[in-house]
């Protein structure tokens, strides 16, 4: 699905026409955030979510937290719905054998850092995860609005350029629930990149009394693309962010091809990309998420994967130790929860 352009513009006729539906959706989503029972786990939980639909840097933050946890000698594990996966019951992702069509693209990236379980029912997924692996920290990639698991630290990732869009709730705007309800349940906002949205996030976090951190996406080994003539394609929430990062690495982007977020390329689309790149002598470049979608596939998908270059990115904070500080915040909150009266039922750790 492509996010409608009017979501990221000022309030207009379309958002006004959809406001009755948005009011109904917002009421349900806000009530769930405020009142839904959340299952506490016997280990610290960090939930990384987006206040809006579309890419903001949620998975890069989840990866950065997992890497920081491992650097501290911890055993982090991931819990995610696995958008686009076929899983209806808990599945432990195999980074070598699992295919994106079965588990989703983002879980494949997460599984390179730590054990990852995919399940639309996060409570069932958590039970399976903690019985299958030894984990002393669970990082949820998404799951903030579903309100199924009690987070010890809830982090919302905001795109510095787009911010909260027109400030309306789905379908009138990009917000997944009323912003006030989301901020009430969040502990930290991480703003990724620069732009007008960063100012809106700063004002919102100040009003809500929430911590705000700044970060940006940086390419890994950008020198590989310096001076290269490129055909770039992406099926992510904000392809322009990928193209801008690629240009900053020194690439000369001759052509781009945009696809909907999480899009699985058809045979015709793959053949067209290969043909166009070969005929114009262009380097095919895509995102790590798009490349993951080709993993475990044969035929034309395997051919496309073999001739691709992948622009890997990582999240870098304004202060290098901020991922470690977020982990410390989660462990401190967990200790308070563990020793507080009536802290509730915990899913078995196995």
TrEMBL record:
InterPro entries linked to this entry: LpxK, P-loop_NTPase
Keywords, ordered alphabetically: ATP-binding, Kinase, Lipid A biosynthesis, Lipid biosynthesis, Lipid metabolism, Nucleotide-binding, Transferase
Record has Chloroplast as a keyword: no
Positions with a binding annotation for ATP: 52-59
Pathway info: Glycolipid biosynthesis; lipid IV(A) biosynthesis; lipid IV(A) from (3R)-3-hydroxytetradecanoyl-[acyl-carrier-protein] and UDP-N-acetyl-alpha-D-glucosamine: step 6/6
EC number: 2.7.1.130
Origin species: Consotaella salsifontis
Keyword set includes Oxidoreductase: no
UniProt enzyme class: transferase
Pfam families in alphabetical order: LpxK
HAMAP family: LpxK
Function noted in UniProt: Transfers the gamma-phosphate of ATP to the 4'-position of a tetraacyldisaccharide 1-phosphate intermediate (termed DS-1-P) to form tetraacyldisaccharide 1,4'-bis-phosphate (lipid IVA).
SUPFAM superfamilies to which the protein is assigned, alphabetical: P-loop containing nucleoside triphosphate hydrolases (SSF52540)
GO biological process: lipid A biosynthetic process; lipopolysaccharide core region biosynthetic process
GO CC, alphabetical: plasma membrane
GO molecular function terms listed in the Swiss-Prot or TrEMBL record: ATP binding; lipid-A 4'-kinase activity
Catalytic reaction(s) noted: a lipid A disaccharide + ATP = a lipid IVA + ADP + H(+)
Taxon lineage: Bacteria, Pseudomonadati, Pseudomonadota, Alphaproteobacteria, Hyphomicrobiales
Homology family: Belongs to the LpxK family.
Protein name, UniProt field: Tetraacyldisaccharide 4'-kinase
């Amino acid at each position: 699905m492509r996010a409608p352009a009017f979501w990221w513009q000022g309030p207009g006729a379309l958002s006004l026409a959809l406001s009755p539906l948005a009011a109904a959706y917002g009421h349900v989503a806000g009530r769930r955030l405020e009142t839904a029972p959340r299952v506490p786990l016997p280990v610290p939980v960090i939930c990384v979510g987006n206040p809006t639909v579309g890419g903001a840097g949620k998975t890069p933050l989840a990866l950065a937290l997992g890497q920081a946890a491992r650097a501290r000698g911890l055993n982090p594990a991931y819990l995610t719905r696995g958008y686009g996966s076929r899983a209806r019951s808990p599945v432990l992702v195999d980074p070598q054998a699992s295919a994106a069509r079965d588990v989703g693209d983002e879980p494949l990236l997460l599984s390179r850092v730590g054990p990852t379980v995919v399940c639309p029912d996060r409570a069932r997924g958590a039970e399976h995860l903690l019985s299958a692996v030894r984990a002393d920290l669970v990082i949820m990639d998404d799951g903030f609005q579903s309100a199924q698991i009690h987070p010890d630290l809830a982090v919302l990732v905001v795109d510095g350029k787009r911010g909260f869009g027109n400030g309306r709730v789905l379908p009138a705007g990009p917000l997944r629930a009323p912003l006030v309800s989301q901020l009430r349940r969040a502990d930290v906002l991480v703003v990724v990149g620069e732009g007008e949205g960063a100012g809106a996030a700063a004002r919102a976090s100040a009003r809500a009394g929430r911590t705000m951190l700044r970060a940006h996406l940086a390419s890994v080994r950008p020198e590989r693309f310096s001076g290269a003539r490129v055909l770039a394609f992406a099926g992510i929430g904000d392809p322009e962010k990928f193209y801008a990062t690629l240009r900053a690495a020194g690439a000369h982007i001759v052509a781009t091809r945009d696809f909907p977020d999480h899009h699985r390329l058809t045979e015709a689309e793959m053949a067209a990309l290969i043909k166009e790149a070969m005929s114009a002598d262009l380097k095919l470049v895509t995102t790590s998420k798009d490349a993951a979608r080709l993993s475990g596939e044969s035929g034309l998908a395997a051919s496309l994967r073999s001739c691709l270059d992948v622009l890997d990115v990582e999240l870098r904070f304004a202060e290098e130790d901020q991922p470690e500080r977020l982990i410390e915040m989660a462990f401190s909150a967990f200790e308070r929860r563990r020793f507080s009266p009536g802290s509730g039922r915990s899913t078995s750790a196995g």
